[in-house]
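In the laboratory, one determines a bound structure by crystallizing the protein with its ligand and collecting diffraction data. In a computational setting the workflow is compressed into a single prediction: the sequence and the ligand go in, and a structural description comes out. We illustrate the idea with SN-glycerol-3-phosphate.
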Amino acid sequence: APDERLPRGAVGVRVIAHRGASAYAPENTLAAADKARDLGIDWVENDVQRTRDGELVVMHDETLARTTDVERVFPDRAPWKVSDFTAEEIAQLDAGSWFSSEYAGEKVPTFSEFLARMTENGQKLLLELKKPELYPGIEREVLKELRDQGWLNYSKRRDLVVQSFNADSVRVVHQQAPRVKTGFLGTPPVSQLRDYARFADQINPRHTTVTREYVDAVHRLRGPQGQRLEVFTWTVDDAATARRLVDMGVDGIISNRPDVVRDAVGGR
Ligand code: G3P
Ligand code: CA
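The predicted complex, in structure-token form:
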């Protein structure tokens, strides 16, 4: 990958649209991915979970209540867990109206649909396995979809990172697809970073926990594929914080307002 041979300063920090450009369009929808594209943002973050009948869907919360009209459509199905609904039921929901009437009728995308849109838009994907402990075997299913849509090919897999707060799940992804870049979400103690570097190519901490010393400690290590470990941090929506984090040396900034961050730090 040509990018990795250039000094980091030459290409700038990567800017990742969190759940899509979710300050401007309903999170984790195709509209939010398109909004990021329209803003000129290459990278999109999303969250993947699984329905009762085994379909992978893009949704952040463990329940459908906050970001859809599920309480109105299925009033008797509290607490409206993603895993209690079929794909067909979820397809009936409106995932846009809660955000604004402009997005009425926006759907909860299946992972398959979301990935196809990433391909079509020429975007890069920071895929989060959300609560994978609730969905045994989800790593293999996600990897199968990625493979089926060509994302594990040599030319495409550099546009992909699979991350999770669940270290066991990240390890499983690495074992099942050793060439796929992985990220661990969190801030492990410096003394433990070496263990994470056996299966994670990135350490992705909450921005309030990042220091220059921490970034340096991560950068001193090489990941499972021999490349310098990277730091993508979240979730940063203001220019001053973004600049401070770039000064500390982070490689990526995950933002609901990726245009603000891009304009502040000159990334892409
Ligand atoms: O990509 C990092 C960030 O999304 C992790 O937090 O809760 O927004 O999934 P959360
Ligand atoms: Ca996430």
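Residues 175 and 199 are 8 Å apart (CA to CA). Keep in mind that any predicted model is a hypothesis to be tested, not a measurement.
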